[in-house]
Amino acid sequence: MPRTRHTILDCSPSCTVEATLELFGGKWKALILYHLFEDQVLRFGEFRHRLPNVTQRMLTNQLRELEADGLVSRTVFPVVPPHVEYRLTELGKTLKPVIQALKTWGDQYAHSVEREKKAKSDQTV
Amino acid sequence: MPRTRHTILDCSPSCTVEATLELFGGKWKALILYHLFEDQVLRFGEFRHRLPNVTQRMLTNQLRELEADGLVSRTVFPVVPPHVEYRLTELGKTLKPVIQALKTWGDQYAHSVEREKKAKSDQTV
DNA sequence: GCCATTAGTGTCAGGAATGATACCATGCCG
DNA sequence: CGGCATGGTATCATTCCTGACACTAATGGC
User: Fold this and answer.
1) Which segment of the chain is annotated as a signal peptide (chains A, B) (predicted)?
2) Which of the four pLDDT bands, split at 50, 70 and 90, describes residue A10?
3) Minimal CB count within 10 Å: which of A47, A57, B61, B117?
4) Residue B75 to chain A, least CA–CA distance (Å)
């Protein structure tokens, strides 16, 4: 998560970009959202499988923040063992074009960047 | 910047999202790119005016990383006082739809999130 | 000679975000 | 009774970001 959470948006036009970024800055949030777009409904454990590099704590954090921002809903079934379902809210669903753009770009160009970096590291090595 | 920079992309389809995110994770990078889309060419000091919350050091960092990722070019004019120009590379320009999506969403929905958060903080206060 | 300019770099401190690990509740199964 | 399953917490360590400050280099103006 970005370290500074702004609360006022009446500054420059870039502020809305900044504000949007704060929803994503969470390092894993875009991934979480991406998977929710893919699967509609996910349980905590399913996120863990899809995002193996995220610690349980971070995952909890990020999900709670997404929930606090009204992008994701959390439904708890009071059973044992626990059962919790996450899904996108209506607001969350509006992010689809953004996630889609990220994915599209990544599919097309991520490899270019990899090459770029590899070329440089090869030079230094 | 995200703390883990992956170098391999042959994992799940979400990896390209992840990879794209790493270019943005830099907390300020998307803003930097946004301003470059607006202004085409920017000098270091101009970034500082547009991003008053970024420290000089962070700005340098982020710009260097963007340069290393091949998204931004840095042109130094060997004069005194120093003159340095930043602009998007061809690869950088391909990010336009992504930045645009961020901006569009922010313009439309950032206020919704603000309201959401405000409502919650009002409850707790 | 002294100050200002620009795009930084270097260093130190403090705080925030992240990671690793251990632990919990509860009910079912054997 | 012991262990497993799920969705977490709690605690501590590490790593990253920020802030404040000092310092640089070459030229122009006072």
Assistant:
1) none
2) very low
3) A57
4) 18
